[in-house]
Design a protein that fits this description.
This is Lipoprotein. This protein is of the alpha+beta class. It is built from 3 helices and 11 strands; from the N terminus they run αβαβββββββββαβ.
């Protein structure tokens, strides 16, 4: 029931965001983090552990996009395409990525990813067992320019058992993740949400 409730909330939220942003988007091919109202922030904070909203705006040449989650342990890729989803797109839309604990097992989280645009909403959920760690951080870049053959990181969730503190991935990582993958070695477990836009 909780999963159904969360899906309804996320769908309504994504519809309102796309409706508000559609007229404001330029023809530049970009991914960006929208400004949320206090109400939207409260809904996401109360219904999920981690939450990310990313708007996309692409020109008419882009026809499809894919999203998936990668899992790393101490910098080594162990799950390359958790829940990969591909959908048709038209111009503007929103990607929503949330994690939430399941009621029956507090060690298990549900990863929820939705892509919403004029074609409708596509969603995947993926259960993942997450062992308790001392600290976690999450983040996403404010803006990404979409380039051909690029698979940008849209969001990151990092877990560490280091009791001396933990810090977010650097701006350089989000700007050019392939050149800064060594940063992932500092964490026990890292989840990256990636995307790919195709023409």
């Amino acid at each position: 029931m909780k999963k159904i409730y969360l899906s309804i909330i996320l769908s309504l939220l994504s519809f309102s965001l796309v409706a508000c942003k559609a007229d404001d988007q330029k023809s530049e091919n970009i991914l960006s983090v929208p400004e949320l109202t206090a109400r939207e922030k409260a809904i996401l904070e109360n219904s999920s552990e981690h939450s990310f909203l990313i708007d996309f705006s692409v020109d008419d040449t882009y026809k499809e996009m894919s999203v998936w989650v990668e899992k790393y342990e101490f910098g080594k890729l162990v799950e390359p395409e958790m829940g990969r989803m591909t959908t048709g797109i038209e111009k503007n839309g929103t990607i929503i990525f949330t994690t939430s604990k399941t009621d029956d097992d507090q060690k298990r989280s549900m990863f929820n990813v939705s892509i919403q645009n004029d074609d409708g909403t596509d969603t995947f959920t993926y259960p993942e067992k997450i062992e308790k760690k001392d600290a976690s951080v999450s983040g996403s870049p404010d803006k990404i320019v979409i380039k051909k053959d690029n698979k940008p990181v849209l969001a990151s969730i990092c877990y560490s058992s280091n009791q001396e503190g933990i810090h977010s991935l650097s701006t350089d990582f989000h700007d050019d993740s392939d050149s800064h993958m060594d940063e992932l070695k500092e964490y026990d477990v890292v989840y990256l949400l990636r995307s790919e836009f195709t023409k």
